[in-house]
Inverse folding.
């Protein structure tokens, strides 16, 4: 059973509704998208610009069939820092471009051989737990933010819950926006909002794109070796995100428009971001959570969020104002969004009637949960393979090598027939 739609993927909400709906996605992605460049010493405005532009390119390549937003990828933080120290920011940009090129190589392989092998590699017993840990692995961030002002976080989350359950009409489909605004106003009464950054910000400032500053990427093979291999981990995460979105909207997005198109789009966006001076991009779990809780699946809404992100990269005061949203407010929002992602993974297991009385299935799920939520870190040469990526890979390998019990069919689960089919 899929979520009841308010707006489907192809629907175009009226402008009076589309703008606030788009702002919900901006609020959902903004904190994490800005955090990555802050941690890696890159330019936040450039990253915000590249994020919006990359999302529009993603929708162009996928023909608007996948309502996803592309934001900064956390998986690249450590290698970008290491590459920047060793080869400078311009060398690191080359590593990011190379990461996008890895996406293009995998796109070519899938375009040639197809996706039939995914039915064997990604059955529900792997997909369900991987989707769950995508949400659960983010929960420490939500709790950390909420803990900096629990009352504010609970008020924010409470507004979202009340709006989602009891609101009528249009208010019912903007609970994230209502929660953010309501939580922000409450945070002001608690003295948790610092307006100083707004006062010091200019109204207009052109992003420091490499094509403007002249600090173009330079070839640094060491930076390529540090950054590019991380694309393997983020592609596994992209598969999980695409399955979550497909499950949420009730469509088989793995085959139409196709995983290869998604990887192509993500690769092009990442290469463009690196060329402009931004950071690598990935589909965002936060925005998938917004889809699930609002049931607004319109790609036009996501595209509107991308346009707003680009505009904000030029309007420094507005961007500064959004950055004043205190962490407890973001914590209250993400407590719900991240939990929603995990719940979609649980639904995948239930709808596919995965038999967890089977020792084989129980072992696969248990190991994926422990490795993913525990944040396993596997050092490989000069970089690390950590979190959801290695948990997913190990789960896939276990599914392939562990013998099936006599009463198990080739495909685990009977409702959807395959881990890559939408419910």
């Amino acid at each position: 059973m899929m979520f009841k739609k308010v707006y489907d993927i192809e629907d175009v909400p009226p402008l009076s509704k589309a703008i606030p709906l788009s702002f919900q996605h901006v609020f959902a992605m903004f904190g994490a998208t800005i955090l990555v460049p802050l941690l890696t010493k890159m330019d936040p405005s450039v990253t915000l610009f590249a994020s919006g532009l990359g999302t529009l390119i993603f929708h162009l390549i996928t023909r608007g069939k996948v309502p996803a937003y592309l934001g900064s990828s956390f998986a690249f933080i450590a290698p970008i820092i290491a590459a920047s120290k060793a080869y400078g920011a311009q060398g690191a940009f080359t590593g990011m471009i190379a990461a996008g090129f890895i996406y293009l190589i995998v796109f070519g392989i899938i375009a040639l051989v197809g996706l039939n092998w995914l039915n064997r590699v990604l059955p529900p017993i792997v997909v369900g737990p991987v989707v769950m840990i995508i949400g659960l692995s983010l929960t420490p961030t939500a709790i950390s933010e909420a803990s900096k002002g629990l009352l504010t976080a609970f008020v924010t989350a409470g507004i979202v819950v009340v709006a989602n359950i009891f609101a009528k009409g249009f208010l019912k489909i903007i609970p994230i926006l209502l929660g953010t605004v309501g939580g922000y106003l409450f945070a002001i009464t608690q003295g948790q909002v610092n307006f100083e950054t707004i006062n010091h910000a200019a109204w207009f400032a052109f992003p420091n794109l490499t094509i403007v500053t002249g600090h173009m990427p330079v070839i640094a093979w060491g930076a390529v070796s540090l950054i590019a291999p991380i694309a393997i981990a983020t592609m596994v995460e992209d598969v999980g995100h695409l399955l979550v979105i497909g499950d949420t909207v009730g469509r088989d997005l793995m085959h139409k428009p196709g995983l290869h198109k998604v990887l192509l789009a993500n690769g092009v966006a990442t290469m463009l971001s690196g060329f402009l001076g931004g950071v690598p991009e990935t589909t965002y779990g936060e925005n998938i959570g917004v889809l699930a809780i609002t049931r607004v699946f319109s790609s036009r809404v996501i595209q509107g969020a991308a346009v707003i992100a680009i505009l904000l990269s030029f309007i420094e005061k507005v961007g500064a104002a959004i950055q004043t949203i205190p962490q407890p407010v973001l914590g209250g929002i993400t407590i719900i969004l991240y939990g929603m992602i995990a719940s979609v993974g649980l639904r995948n297991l239930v709808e596919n009637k995965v038999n967890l009385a089977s020792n084989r299935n129980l072992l696969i799920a248990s190991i994926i949960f422990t490795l993913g939520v525990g944040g396993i870190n596997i050092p490989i040469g000069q970089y690390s393979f950590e979190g959801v990526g290695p948990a997913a890979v190990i789960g896939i390998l276990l599914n392939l090598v562990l013998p099936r019990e006599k009463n198990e069919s080739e495909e685990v689960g009977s409702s959807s027939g395959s881990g890559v089919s939408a419910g």
The beta strands are 70-72, 281-283, 377-380, 383-386.
